[in-house]
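Hey team,

Filing this mostly as a record. A colleague (T.K.) asked me to run one chain through the structure pipeline before their review meeting, and I want the input and output archived in the tracker in case anyone asks later how it was produced. No errors, nothing strange. Just documentation.

Input sequence:
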Amino acid sequence: MKTKAVLELVDVKAIAAAAEAEALHNNWAVTIAIVDDGGHMLWLQRLDGAPAISAHIAPAKAHTAALGRRESKVYEDVINQGRVSFLSAPAVSGMLEGGVPITKDGQTIGAVGVSGVKSTEDAQIARAGIAAIGL
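Output structure:
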């Protein structure tokens, strides 16, 4: 039987703080969502001025990245390259850039989803958060 790392509250808080710091440093009003490996919400933070819709989009991006075990941008690219039938894939709705899986020892242990600015900037914030725990 294998053992697997899991996100603890201290990890989630560190990811959230670093992601928030990256967003504030750039004056970006975003929502930050952190989920476990099953896509279950561990953290949701909507910064002042973030669009209301971002509180729905960020968790969807995180959920998609966790379940798919890859960045949500992969799905956006598939769709943009013409495979629109992928829009019917079950259990994933955040198929936009900005969801980044958290991986340790080859295993996905969660994901961060960010929404509120350009999608490349959303992903930048998510990666900054993940880097705070050395991954």
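Quick notes for T.K.: Helices lie at 9-25, 54-68, 73-80, 119-131. The first helix runs from residue 9 to 25.
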